[in-house]
What does this fold into?
Amino acid sequence: MDFTEEQIERYSRQIVLKEVGGRGQKKLLDSKITVIGCGGLGSPITYYLTAAGIGSIKLVDFDRVDLSNLQRQILHYTSDINKMKTQSACEKLTQLNPDPEIQIINEVLSSHNVKEILQDSDFVLDGSDNLPTKLLINDACINLGIPFTIAGVLRFNGQVLTVIPQKKTTCYRCVFGDISGNTASVSCSQAGVIGLIPGAIGCIQANEVIKYLLNIGDLIINRILMVDFLNYQFNFIKVIRNDDCPACGENPVDLINNYDYKIDDACHG
Ligand SMILES: [Zn+2]
It folds into this structure.
């Protein structure tokens, strides 16, 4: 392994783990991930994966830092208000660890750019705040054969689902079906959330990536982790793959080019 002295010291607490070792650290340094959203979930995801030495991290966000973000989006400081979130994130992450190559993309993820943005990733993390974007990530990753983890947070609750297309595990669309027309779904801005909830859920998403890359432990596949932080209930709900699912089923449809994700309504409505 050709680590520098500094890298050996920086990563010593994880290299010493038998599940990681020098080989595992090399694997992390050689891996490329994409994180959609530099907000409440994206903050812990990118902090911990940057600290762990993931080699290449692509940050996708179209938004600017707002005062009301700071209660939970801990990548951003008061002095960052009005700055692009990707820029603010990149500044913190490169200070934390200069090893990862950080790439920033200031675009709304849409059916027009999703494949190009995600295609060279080893793993994709959803840190978005709306259902249409989660469906788009699901459909594109399955089409491209890229593993990914999707999460949601609301009030005192969080959920996580990981999907491994190569293993044909249950996808987000299998579980939630066609939700793009569901205008009744509420976002955090309407329902509220305690800031540490996306913090804790984002950490679980980051854990999924590390375990997937190192091929250790059990992933949250074919089940959804449901966490209630108010009463400390941690439950897994079994979810079964739908053979007729248009994304992951036996006869998949070209959803990216044919499905109306209504992303613009979700992101700017
Ligand atoms: Zn499916």
User: Anything to note?
Assistant: The chain has a mean pLDDT of 94. The pocket of zinc ion is lined by residues 171, 173-174, 242, 245, 247-248 (CB under 6 Å). Residues 31-268 form a domain with the Rossmann fold fold (CATH 3.40.50.720).
